[in-house]
Amino acid sequence: MLRTLLGEKPRVNQGKLKQAMDTMAFTLESFEKQMYVDHDPNHDYRNLYVWTQGLISSLDELEQSYFAAAHFRKKVVAGSTRDMSSAEKSEYARYVYFYKDAFIRCFAILDKLGTVLNEVFQLNTSKTKVHFSYYTVLRQFEYYRDHHELAQQLIKIKEAYREPMSRLRKRRNMEIHYMNSEMQDDLWQLHQTLRGKVKLEDLDQHLLEMQQGVDMVCETLNMAYRYINRIWRKQILKH
């Protein structure tokens, strides 16, 4: 959708994004078939079907937000906000909007996945923490040895992206709970200069970290749903 609005060609899924999308699409087909077979009297499959649909849509929106942020970043050339024309300030504002949207969506998707994993594997995370995050669910896996393989794979992905995700999470927390992240940078820099000329944050570094965040989410979704699909096939064979 955003690509069309920005005059770009529609996206063709590739790489990690395609893997995650395809794996979740396969899960939807499996749920749909099973609902047709046993009519899903307790709505267990229906709930997972809806949640998985939501994750596919959320991942699509995350990628679009990252793409839009990168698109508008190309139009920002000044080194500080004071040196920008009014037109460039507008482009910078659009970049900031989609960049924020992307890092907020990044953790929202992980938390939604945490809900799915908690339900599928009956981890009872809510007994540990009522409002839990994906990372809480991941820690909860330590107490359930039945799915140790999945837990280790997800932890491996988390560790591989520890540094960029830590920085993105800090910005997310600042944006949601305190003040927006670029305002924090601005305040710090205003204290460093008598002239009050604020040097722009490193947009390319921020986008690189955001791309790594998208990759982390894609790898995590792909790994989790590949495991769910494998468990699903085993259950079907038993019946």
From TrEMBL:
This protein's source sits in the domain of life called: Bacteria
- List, for all copies, the residue spans of the domain called Cthe-2314-like HEPN: 51-229
Q: InterPro entries in the record, alphabetically?
A: HEPN_Cthe2314 (IPR041394)
A Pfam family cross-referenced in the UniProt record is: HEPN_Cthe2314
Protein name as catalogued: Cthe-2314-like HEPN domain-containing protein
